[in-house]
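Thread title: Can someone regenerate the structure for this chain?

I was given the following input by a collaborator and told the matching structure tokens would be attached. They weren't. Posting the sequence so someone can regenerate them.
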Amino acid sequence: MAKIPDPLERRHLLERELDEAQARALAEAYLEEGRVVEAVAFLQKAGDEERLSALAEEALEAGDAFLFRAACAAAGREPDAAQWQRLGDAAERAGKRNYVALARRQFEGVDD
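Best answer:
Regenerated them for you:
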């Protein structure tokens, strides 16, 4: 397993070319530590759209707008109104009021 870099080293790793295996190993190290949002950038560098899509789906189910946005952006996808509606509903069930408001704003501003 890869060692999680300190913040400065992380920045340097993200700024330079990494091979797919190294980027994926770093992403997995972050995921194992529960640092999902930090893993997203390395999954993007690894070109792992499948894992990014899975994270976006997990974020939808959890009502986590921050992770959802990050995973979609890293995968180069623009969420549609139905996804924002679904995220808002999940956020409401989870009591995440700020994410409910954010999802509602996004839902109202997205055309299908």
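The mean pLDDT is 93.
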